[in-house]
Write a structure and sequence with these properties.
The chain is mainly beta and about 850 residues long. The protein has a 22-stranded antiparallel barrel.
Length: about 850
């Protein structure tokens, strides 16, 4: 019986050689063997390539075999003529849709090339493609962010255009711990970093827009003791210990309004990546954290735009598709605070200009002083993207940021009016050119050349005398970076590169009376060789990255070796362990010469290490984390230890007995960061808690070890966020223990010098400010104006309860009463804001 079936089936089987040939050739051979002629339209059979039927089969068996493989029908017009009939529904171009396998989102600008021909197609914004040529050759699908695929042409030869799913290389290399961390648009990667996508982000309490640096302060372990972006502290570090890069350009100015608003348009950024530890070896500096901001996309996107305003500024954004292979992106934002005084501006003004030349005069309270100030800020960016052929992308980025404050002061004394003008300007300019080439599916390279220029200058005309005090701080940072990526296998990826940068810092102080001039210019050149190996297990249980960065500081003839490691292991699909460690250094830091520098508003100036009294800052950090993610519950727990050597007392902003002391030391911080988050359909709620023990050690000071100025021992943040259709609401609160402060021994000055009274202090940082508590609220609504247009409006309230809390305090001698008085800097008062934004 079995033998009989075998005999029956055998003639229907293809020939043993297993080689496919074009159907046209098969029909020609059948015609010769059986002396018949086939009538067909060549385009209708060009798509088919088959293993020929057995030569021993009959004519009908051969035709049945072909019909089974191709769905073609054969009709005998006569004994010698056979007509080949195709399904008319298949009489269309080869077409289909490309979608992301994970997100099911369309893949734009993927290339489909018919092998052996010049025929190709590129997918549009909905992932659709259509090939003009029908061929039996295979079709190669390629995209920079997706694994290449090869499909048979016959796969597309169906009645409707099929859907093809591609697997993202990025998703492969960067597995996600959770796609929703705190709110939509924030995710945590298994490589230990946090990713923020402002265009997709949900609301956060107190924010009207996805302000980049205010958003990152919601992440456990990141905070600001005085509510300022310019004092962002990551795990107890100072703001200057964070590396901020915008499209490869280093930012030395991160805030508008002297720290209350991010210096970057929040509606522009495509992706922000934040690393508190385990940083990639491709990034130096930033001993506390790295914040990488990118607006680069891999595809040439269609024309889009947006305009909007809030109670502080107006902005616009436009991405224009200039050709099939290029587009240009422009954004701009400017405050109108020099024209209109809004409630938001008033609150910001009162917060920033406390205890500065703008609001305080202490010499003689009987004289009437008047002050008028004009303040405005702007930022502007341009990006050009050009695709060169199919495998190379060119990006050119330009950035400009500015803050300008003019102060007009008058006093009337003995019927004589005296007027003085003072000014303060912050300027940042940056440019970057990046060329990225995808040589093949496994190898790619990129090279970038960048420059960053920062300048702050002030002119302070004293209303009490004819003294004019000019100050300036300038940085020019230029460099080149080369990176190569090699996919060695499904498990290993190797990256290597080289980076060179030159940083020049200039500080200028000029006083007209008494005549004084100081100009200091320093330059450092740094070379770095980089290597990094990534491993990804096939079962997705384990991934890791180990790398090193070998630095050479040319002026000091110093080598600095920096290993980096990141490991992640999944015990179960819901529970995973994370281990990270890194060594880093930086040669730039901010110091405070005098509290009244730059009008007392911006006291810090950038300076370079000289390897003597200003050492190279070095850090070592390790952390161990656990994550549980199941049934819309997310729990994260991370313990960390960090030690930073080479800090100077001038970089820590002391306002006690060590204010004018110049020495170096270290700080050690260890702690725990915990988050519990739950999603209920359209509602997300979370609570985070951070504990830190953070201590200085300065061997040359009387008090060798004492609490860090930026220590927040206990910090709790919480929020409830609702995202239902077009309505978004968010309410949240945060509480933390007051930062350390130093109290005076008494209200009576001490006289170490008979002619100079001074404040007598208790042990440094032996007390704390009052605990901080604030409740914030935000709401927004979106109107769909068309297929691609939307109108968003919303509002926010910071400090709903209007708590007045001291976020900083220091002490001074009142020359009129000759007693020690306390000077407090208070938190932001209740501050409303509103916005309106139209996208198209």
């Amino acid at each position: 019986m079995i033998f009989s079936l075998f005999v029956i089936v055998l003639p229907l089987r293809a020939q043993d050689n297993g080689k496919t040939i074009l159907l046209k050739k098969i029909l020609e051979n059948i015609g010769k063997t059986h002396e018949v002629n086939f009538n067909y339209i060549e385009e209708e059979i060009a798509i088919f390539k088959l293993i020929p039927p057995s030569n021993s089969a009959t004519l009908q068996e051969k035709l049945n075999y072909i019909s089974e493989k191709t769905q073609l029908k054969f009709e005998f017009i006569s004994e010698k003529y056979i007509s080949v009939i195709n399904n008319q529904k298949l009489d269309k171009p080869l077409c289909g849709y490309l979608l992301d396998k994970e997100t099911k989102e369309p893949i734009q600008n993927a290339t489909l090339l018919v092998s052996g021909t010049n025929s190709y197609a590129i997918t549009n914004e909905i992932g659709f493609f259509e090939l003009k040529t029908k061929s039996a050759n295979t079709i190669e699908i390629s995209h920079l962010n997706y694994k290449s695929e090869i499909i048979q042409s016959s796969f597309l030869y169906v009645e409707s255009c099929p859907t093809i799913y591609l697997k993202s290389i990025i998703n492969d290399l960067e597995p996600v711990v959770t796609t929703l961390f705190l709110t939509k648009g924030i995710s945590k990667k298994r490589e230990g970093t946090y990713e923020i996508k402002p265009k997709k982000i949900g609301l956060l309490p107190g924010l009207t827009e996805p302000d980049i640096f205010q958003t990152m302060q919601q992440i456990p372990g990141i905070n600001a003791t005085d509510e300022s972006i310019s004092n962002t502290s990551v795990r107890g570090g100072t703001h200057d210990q964070n590396l901020f890069l915008w499209n490869g350009i280093r930012l030395y100015q991160t805030g508008h309004f002297f720290g209350l608003i991010s210096s970057l348009n929040p509606n522009l950024a495509h992706k922000i990546n934040i690393a508190k530890n385990g940083t990639s070896a491709f990034y130096g500096d930033g001993v506390s954290s790295s914040v990488l901001i990118s607006t680069h996309t891999d595809s040439i996107e269609n024309t889009t735009g947006a305009v909007g305003f809030n109670l502080i500024n107006a902005d616009f954004y436009a991405k224009v598709k200039t050709s099939k292979k290029s587009n240009i992106e422009i954004s701009g934002r400017r405050s109108y605070t020099d024209l209109i005084t809004s409630p938001t501006y008033k609150s910001y003004f009162d917060k920033i200009f406390q205890n500065t030349i703008v609001t305080n005069y202490f010499d003689n309270q009987n004289i009437k002083y008047n002050s008028k100030e004009d303040f405005y800020f702007y930022d502007f960016t341009v990006q050009y993207h050009q695709k060169i052929k199919q495998k190379t992308d060119l990006f050119v980025d330009i950035l400009s940021i500015s803050n300008v404050l003019d102060i007009f002061q008058t006093k009337t004394e003995n019927n004589i009016t005296i007027s003085k003008n003072s000014c303060l300007e912050h300027q940042t300019y940056g440019a970057n050119a990046l060329l990225r080439t995808n040589w093949n599916a496994k190898n790619s390279s990129e090279i970038s050349i960048y420059a960053s220029y920062y300048n702050i200058n002030s002119e302070n005309e004293s209303i009490e005398s004819n003294q004019i005090f000019n100050q300036e701080n300038t940085i020019l940072d230029t460099g080149i970076k080369l990176q190569n990526n090699h996919i060695l296998s499904d498990n290993f990826t190797f990256r290597n590169g080289y980076q060179f940068n030159e940083i020049g810092v200039r500080n200028v102080d000029i006083v007209n009376t008494p005549v004084f001039s100081r100009k200091i210019k320093e330059v450092l050149k740094n070379h770095a060789l980089i290597a990094e190996l990534n491993y990804y297990s096939v079962n997705d249980k384990f991934n890791g990255r180990i790398g090193f960065r070998q630095n050479y500081i040319q002026e000091f003839s110093t080598f600095i070796f920096e290993p980096r490691i990141q490991l992640n292991y999944k015990f179960t699909p819901f529970f995973q362990l994370e281990i990270m460690g890194e060594s880093k250094h930086q040669t730039t830091s901010q110091i405070v010469d005098l509290q009244q520098d730059f009008l007392g508003i911006e006291k810090r100036r950038w300076t370079l290490s000289n390897n003597e009294d200003i050492p190279i800052v070095k850090s070592n950090q390790a952390s161990l984390g656990l994550t549980f993610n199941k049934n819309n519950w997310l729990l994260t727990l991370e313990n960390f230890y960090k030690k930073v050597d080479g800090i100077t007392s001038m970089s820590q902003g002391f306002q006690n007995q060590y204010e004018f002391v110049k020495t170096s030391g270290n700080y050690t911080v260890y702690g725990t960061e915990f988050l519990i988050q739950k999603q209920f359909r359209h509602i997300t709620s979370w609570v985070s808690y951070t504990f830190q023990e953070n201590n200085y050690e300065f061997k040359t000071l009387n008090a060798k070890a004492f609490p860090n100025n930026f220590e927040i021992k206990h910090h709790i943040k919480s929020a409830i966020i609702s995202d239902f259709k077009n309505i978004k609401l968010a309410i949240g609160a945060q509480w933390f223990t007051g930062k350390p402060t130093t109290l005076p021994i008494s209200t009576t000055p001490i006289y170490t010098n008979p002619e100079t009274p001074a404040v007598g202090y208790q042990a440094p940082n032996s007390s704390n400010l009052e605990d901080y508590f604030q409740v914030n609220f935000s709401g927004s609504y979106a109107f769909n104006m068309g297929k691609k247009s939307k109108l968003n409006l919303g509002f926010s309230i910071q400090n709903v309860l209007n708590n007045k809390i001291s976020v900083n305090q220091h002490y001074r001698i009142n020359n009129n009463t000759n007693i020690v008085e306390q000077v407090n800097t208070s938190s932001l008062e209740r501050t409303p804001n509103a916005f309106l934004r139209f996208t198209f």
